[in-house]
UniProtKB/TrEMBL annotation, chain C:
<feature type="transmembrane region" description="Helical">
    <location>
        <begin position="109"/>
        <end position="127"/>
    </location>
</feature>
<keyword id="KW-0472">Membrane</keyword>
<keyword id="KW-1003">Cell membrane</keyword>
<dbReference type="Pfam" id="PF02361">
    <property type="entry name" value="CbiQ"/>
</dbReference>
<dbReference type="GO" id="GO:0043190">
    <property type="term" value="C:ATP-binding cassette (ABC) transporter complex"/>
</dbReference>
<dbReference type="InterPro" id="IPR012809">
    <property type="entry name" value="ECF_CbiQ"/>
</dbReference>
<keyword id="KW-1133">Transmembrane helix</keyword>
<dbReference type="GO" id="GO:0006824">
    <property type="term" value="P:cobalt ion transport"/>
</dbReference>
<feature type="transmembrane region" description="Helical">
    <location>
        <begin position="44"/>
        <end position="65"/>
    </location>
</feature>
<keyword id="KW-0812">Transmembrane</keyword>
<feature type="transmembrane region" description="Helical">
    <location>
        <begin position="233"/>
        <end position="251"/>
    </location>
</feature>
<feature type="transmembrane region" description="Helical">
    <location>
        <begin position="72"/>
        <end position="89"/>
    </location>
</feature>
<protein>
    <submittedName>
        <fullName>Cobalt ECF transporter T component CbiQ</fullName>
    </submittedName>
</protein>
<dbReference type="InterPro" id="IPR051611">
    <property type="entry name" value="ECF_transporter_component"/>
</dbReference>
<dbReference type="InterPro" id="IPR003339">
    <property type="entry name" value="ABC/ECF_trnsptr_transmembrane"/>
</dbReference>
Amino acid sequence: MVAVTDAVTDVTPSPSLEVAGLAFAYPDGHQALFGVDFSVARGERVALLGPNGAGKTTLVLHLNGILTGGTGTVKVAGLPVGRQHMAEIRRRVGIVFQDPDDQLFMPTVREDVAFGPAAAGLKGPELEERVDRALVQVGMAEFKDRPPHHLSFGQRRRVAVATVLAMEPEILVLDEPSSNLDPASRRELADILRSLDVTVLMVTHDLPYALELCPRSLVLSEGVIAADGKTGELLSDEELMRAHRLELPFGFDPRSVVGEGA
Amino acid sequence: MCDTQAPRSCKWFALSHYHRTVHVPDGFIDAPTSVATGVVAAAAVAVSLRGARRELDERTAPLAGLVAAFIFAVQMLNFPVAAGTSGHLLGGALAAILVGPCTGVLVISVVLLMQGILFADGGLTALGVNITCMGIVTVLVAYGLFRGLVKILPRTRRSVTAASFVAALVSVPASALVFTALYAVGGTTDVSIGKVATAMVGVHILIGVGEAAITALTVGAVIAVRPDLVYGARDLRQRLRLRVNGELVDAPAAEPAVPVAARSPRRIWAVGLVTSLVLAGFVSFYASADPDGLEKVAADKGIDEKVEEHAAADSPLADYGVKDVENARLSGGLAGVIGVGVTVVAGTGVFWAVRRRRTAEGADASDASPASTSV
Amino acid sequence: MGTGHAHKLYRHGHSPVHALPPHTKLAAVFAFVIVVVSTPREAMWAFGLYAVLLAVVACVARVPAGFLLKRLLIEVPFVAFAVLMPFVAEGERVEVLGMSLSLSGLWGAWNVLAKGTLGVAASVLLASTTELRALLLGLQRLKLPPLLVQIASFMIRYGDVITDEMRRMRIARESRGFDARGLRHWGVLGKSAGALFIRSYERGERVHLAMVSRGYAGSMPVIDEVTASRAQWSYALALPFAALVVCLLGWSL
């Protein structure tokens, strides 16, 4: 725990996330990552773009040490992901999975949001306070005692975000946050994400959403980072987009949008 | 859980059928034997809890739960045997091969406990008997055989499937045999041991074929898609090679290889087995000294001599018949030893064989397995 | 590890029995069954009293008799076995309605039937007044090793996943005219078992990853502390104590 505190209170804060030389193959021999390098500074909102099968989910599972055993390193706020700091790493890296039904497994919204902090040892009024704050952040406070499976899909996704926010993570990792959302829910989620004061890594192939929310983007293709730059510039580079099977929706022109990423 | 399509006069079918589908209920085996098997089961679970820490890592823990749920569910999937009866999986072999022997014992114990609490299937006081027969014996026999076969056969996925088949096949009649032995010691009804043994073993060889088929097909299916989920095939895995920036680099081993994991649990197992053997023998030796309810009635009504002569004369295994207290104690203790003895012979015998082979291969096995678990 | 909805065995209610902490109920049922099993089978009236005790509990728990009786049907196969016992067992025979029955077999049948039925009824009452998640918490509080509780929790969660998948696969099988009968169909059933396993695992694996990502390390975090007061304990243990009195009478009479 001494090392942990040191890393946090370091005078020059280390980047929220540093990935270097990360390579990984599954036990059946299928190799997903071939040496991934990038870093995300504190407070940044970065989109990780890539076609299906590019290794996005595999990469996400490395960020909190669920998958290990390949080569390379991952550091979260200076702390290397490894066996000895696993609990602290998991607290710092909050992953919101693609399907909220995978993420919500407790009988009520309250218990689901409390799960993470309670696993970290919080209890009593302190725990309750964390839960309330996280639910307020996503605008779901009045649903506290409802069973998650009675909520709409968009509401469930917001609760899923709250379950992770309750752990007060260093970095929020969202896997396809906009999938299956209707336009209104999509808008609400975007507002929530913009209002948060945390580092965000958003894994997606929803390019307009990336442009809307993330000033910077990474393109993951065939297991390596193929491009890293301003989202607007990357999306406007037609050759790059075609080479990595990234397609903009019909009629969408990134140059005409004045978003944060442009 | 059970569809008795034609019980009619097939006495022994009914008996085995009953054991097969609904587990042993309360009041079926007398109290001393229930206690003795309870002690054996508790000891085995305690040993397994220690061993399971080595078998399970973070990613495989839910696998144990899945195997438990799967066994729970597949026990409802009756498959037709013959003559209108149907049997279902015991699951011990499947559990041992998929999640390892220690976790396997835990899985079966959990299944039986939850069936007892939730579905009232199998009495809570008969939990020891059920765990001993269906958990400990099947897992030990099956896993022992499995490891032995995998060592002998070529190192392919097909061998693993074949070994699962044989292991499951043998584990079922072995379980039936131990049940018979327990029944001989502590059955509350004096159905002759000969009848029970014939019925149990006969039917269970048939059921064993079904169990073997389902186990082998399941293991085969899993190993084809997710070889990382089959504990028994861990040393089949190839070493990983990673391509980093176009160059091939050897990956560090991610899992501890089997020899490291297996060595010390095996010693614990041996100790556990010997302890169980001694306990089962001694406890049932002394426990049988108390006449049970039946003998009490018989004595009260002054009909004991007649009854006992009859019982003894009729049974092919007349030695187990209750002639007098001394004899009962002796035969009780004996049967207790036989019960655990089957386990010891079948299980540890193969363990020793495997171990001897392994010391021979020790050199290359150990350098092929740098132990570093990184989850 | 709640499945979000109550299990089918559970009957929602707000009776005093529902409100008892789960571990006191578990302890009471275990103790009760042990007492029942150690009662001499000749004391027939004792089993009658046990049944009355359970009936009182069912009344207090507001579990209707019909529900209880329906759930008791689980023991039908073993009733069939018990009926056979008098024919199979050795020993002195008695003539009943022209049939030669073994006396010891009759006693054996009665023994298994009486004790088994009471055991089943007690478990049914427990399951119908206690939620699954509460049962697991109860086992945890009774110091069942965490690894066993963990396996049980996953088992229950996967139970839903598997029964769903099983139903879908059975419908798919049967809608193609397949009916398991005889040796030749073992292969098909085995193959479905393999596929069922993989499908279920991969569904549940994602939930587990989400749990692990939030710091799950093998035991459920305690969100609401459940404690049992002395009054609740004595309330729950009234059942086994009453049974114990009956049992002691049974031995001494």
